[in-house]
What does this fold into?
Amino acid sequence: MAKQIDVADLSIYYGSFRAVEDVSMTIEPKAVTALIGPSGCGKSTFLRTLNRMHEVIPGAYAEGTVEIDGINIYGPGVDPVGVRRNVGMVFQRPNPFPTMSVRDNVVAGQRLNGERTSKSELDDVAERSLRGANLWEEVKDRLDKPGSSLSGGQQQRLCIARAIAVEPQVVLMDEPCSALDPISTLAIEDLIEDLKSEYTIVIVTHNMQQAARVSDKTGFFNIEGTGKPGKLIEFDETQKMFSNPSNKETEDYISGRFG
Amino acid sequence: MTTSTRFPVPAAPERTIDVVQPSLPRAFTFGAMGFALVVGVGAYLLLGNYVAVGVGVFLGYLIPVYVASRVRESKRRATDRFWTIVMTAAFVIAVTPLISLLVTVVMEGAARFDVEFFTSDMRGVAGEGGGALHAIIGTFMITSLAAVISIPVGIMTGVYLVEYGRGPLARGVTFLVDVMTGIPSIVAGLFAFALFAFLVGPQYRSGFMGAIALTVLMIPTVVRATEEMLKLVPNELREASYALGVQKWRTITRVVIPTALAGIVTGVVLAIARVIGETAPLLLAAGFTSTVNWNPFEGRMTALPVYSYYQYVTPGFPPETGFERSWTAALVLVIIVLGLNLFARWVAVRFSPKKS
It folds into this structure.
């Protein structure tokens, strides 16, 4: 079900401030694309435009085209809610719904959308998604406990289970491991490796080893200075980016000689 | 490896680390308390009033402790002790009238806190006996009506302001809510009076009219409570819901409001508790009667505070009987408000998002 995403000449604004300028890239289906770059370079902002979450912020908008499966999600008549059902998202900090149990968190997509689904069907979805997020064995005995009772790493996998429970085409991950310890990070990275057989995955990370470990393609964003828009400097196969980047800036950043 | 720095690092100061400091023995503070009590008794014998006792105890404790602390301990400790004592005294001053009031209401109200008070009204009663059944019914009806109108309007306004409101309209609504929070309750009564005089006629009085007056007072409180609670809901939860492809209205009704429910319900209950004791607007809008009236849209309806007021102003003969009924009505009101507050506490615990 994975889809290809074609981004062309995308500029992203917060009010009159242009945060990202002229990004064009092709995100391959059933692959992991990593976005790296210094803080404030616009990689998270860019990620959020891929499921139209960017415009949730008052005054924020984007220009250019983002085509998923040939359909421009910024075209006229496109419903952002529909886009988000096809492009799921995992956030930097785990954010399970505090009023819901573990099970209800996983099936929150179905429940909140008011779909008429039988309880046994929902149980199936919950189990399948939790297994898919490699969390089932750990939580199967406490599905009725509140989602916030899990550890940070488990909560993040719960959020991934919740994202894949609605069967999206693409999963976006915004620094999903930055609040986690190395063991939980490893669990998430293994999960990303598994998920890519079914989904198109885009991940923003500050951890370059992580980008090198999990991704097939890497995009490097940079910014000239405060107040300037971020730009996509280089976008290539991860292996090439980390061994033989064609751009000097990329090389400096990757080798730690930045700034 | 050579050490080089990009800027001159200031040298670390050379001094011994003296974290262990002398402190006043516990026995000294107890001694100071004893001394303060002696000063208090002395002040009473000398001046003969309780304010003097309070000031005597306060100074009799503050001065020795502060001076001794300055001498034995450090300046910082002495300042700390000084302000601790001052703030404790302020707390005592703040709660003394409250406790005194509660004790007085319970003691004075206990005399008529009997079955008859809750089962009969004031029809044909000029002296002993009589009750406040009609006033209790009136209070519940008027307050319930006010709540039924205010809660949906208030909550929806709060949701609008936090989730949708942008630009001049939202600023205007916020401004009006601020203004409404500050209006005196008698003005709310006059508003209801003027409204119904215009709509129905100047002779019209009813429980519903009283409820409208209370609504004016209640809505801003509910709006504020809802607004504050919704603002506390982390944006991440809204985004998590949007990212699942959930519409905004469903996000609000299924994620945002449930997360803030405990706070909203607490705010609503406290808003009810605030208006249930209103007298002036009800005096104007609902009027006064001595019999039970079950119809809030027709005829005058007495509420407990109004009842209490009238029993005091026109106590009948002997006047003590009226005064006693007045106190008991006040006691019943206090109990209702206390009950509402306990209910709000329970709701806050019951509905707040579960931690582990």
Remarks:
- The CA atoms of residues 61 and 174 of chain B lie 48 Å apart.
- The interface with chain A takes residues 166, 234, 236-247, 250-251, 254-255, 258-259, 261, 353-356 of chain B (CB under 8 Å).
